[in-house]
Amino acid sequence: MVFLTFGIRELTLALVFVGVFIAIRRWRYARRSKGLPMPPGPPGKLLVGSIMEISQYEAPRALARYGEKYGDLVMFKGLGNHALVLNSLQAMNDLLDKRGNNNSHRPISIYGGELLGLNESVVFLPYGEEWRAQRKLAHMALSSTAIKQYCSMQEDIAAILAKDLLDSPDDFFASVRMSAGRVVIAVTYGIPSGEIQTECINLGERALEIGSKAVAPGNYLCDLLPFLKHAPSWVSFQREARESKKVMFSHKMQPYEYVKREVAAGSALPSLMRDLMTNPPKGETVPETRLQWLGSSMFGAGSETTYATILTLIMAMALFPEKQKFAQAEIDRVLGFERLPTIQDRERLPYVDAVVKEAMRWQPAVHMGVPRRSAEDDVYDGYFIPKGTIFIPNVWAIAYAPNARYDPEAFIPERYLDPKEDTVDPSLWAFGFGRRICPGRFLAENSIFIFAATILAAFNISPPADGQLEKEFTQQLVRSPKPFQCQITPRSAAKAKLVEARAAASVV
């Protein structure tokens, strides 16, 4: 009886403590929120809440449907975390651009930042002095003016891509991937075509795959439950992190050491890294580690979006042949038949440019933007947003916003040429927002345009002769078509000879 009484007293005391704890938390929250509610969202499940519903990058359409129910702001909660999905361009610009001082931080990444050692990369760096220093270098080297020196290099690589498609049309996936990587490695480090360049591209692809997986919400439980970083070394994610860290280190160091040797020998080719090594900002000494991290970050920023968008464009041209014919007719009318397009021709080829924009919108490469984190409590549109909230821009919702004139599911480049239409240019959301916008966006846009224009000028693209073209896409941070078949044939014998001659004249 004494034991039973003691147990009841202990239980009662424990319940009182729990009640007091909950009451204090609610009181503190009420003070912080000033009585304002958080944005609405799904109720979720016991213990884990709704946070796990955004753990996979296959979610954009589902999150857009939540937006239809709850609005532009949809809050997911659970495991002590808050994630706010933004379903409109207005909300993204307001919170990620205009309030960038508070909302330009990255989520604290245990796996990517601590275990992989990427916490000095511009992708993972917190918003602060070192991040600003890396961004300053990137903006200086990749401004719309600075990248003009690389236009001929990009045109050369586009011609080599066309020659690869001429020689091995069935291997177009590999050809596009290699060409996208070649631009970034050549521009960043000045590494010419050959064994070293190929090795650096392959390293970059492996590093990009690792990094994309690391930043995806929910891929690693230790990011939601940080104490798991102390798990034993034999646990699977710890083993994976050790092996992945070696790849990331090689990706950072190998091309950097190459250009460093070339600069010392006086034989370095023009490149972003050569310029920063030999002509740093006035009055500044740039640490080597800063240059190494900046260079390694360039690959993901420029390669994968180009690869994904060009493959999407090839798919679209096979599925919508009438749009392909309109683009080819414009190229023939404006340029004639004696040369391939150049980047300077972009303003003279508005329909081709619209085809590129539509490919970016129709199947967005980055359909959910890289997450951000708030530094302090905030109030927006009558809602309380707690400190530490993770922002996830659902750009899919922008790309597929309902439209009275043009079906968002259809491939219609004309939407960008219609003066009565207010379709948002994909360049305003495809490369990020505010202070975290991709500094390499101008370089990437040039690569995408010249690859697309060169392919359209030289080739006809059609569905496979013996079957249907499957429209399926990967579900990753950067979303690209899964392997599909199509026919890529030269538009004429004269076009084939033009491709061969232009590729032979390339100097990259």
UniProtKB/TrEMBL annotation:
GO cellular component terms attached to this protein's record: membrane
Give TM segment ranges: 6-24
Q: In which pathway does it act?
A: Secondary metabolite biosynthesis
- UniProt-recorded Gene Ontology molecular function terms: heme binding; iron ion binding; monooxygenase activity; oxidoreductase activity, acting on paired donors, with incorporation or reduction of molecular oxygen
SUPFAM superfamilies assigned: Cytochrome P450 (SSF48264)
UniProt main location, coarse: membrane
Among InterPro entries, the record links this protein to: Cyt_P450, Cyt_P450_CS, Cyt_P450_E_grp-I, Cyt_P450_sf, Cytochrome_P450_fung
Q: What is stated as this protein's family in its record?
A: Belongs to the cytochrome P450 family.
Q: Under which name does UniProt file this protein?
A: Cytochrome P450
Task: Give the source species.
Answer: Ceriporiopsis subvermispora (strain B) (White-rot fungus)
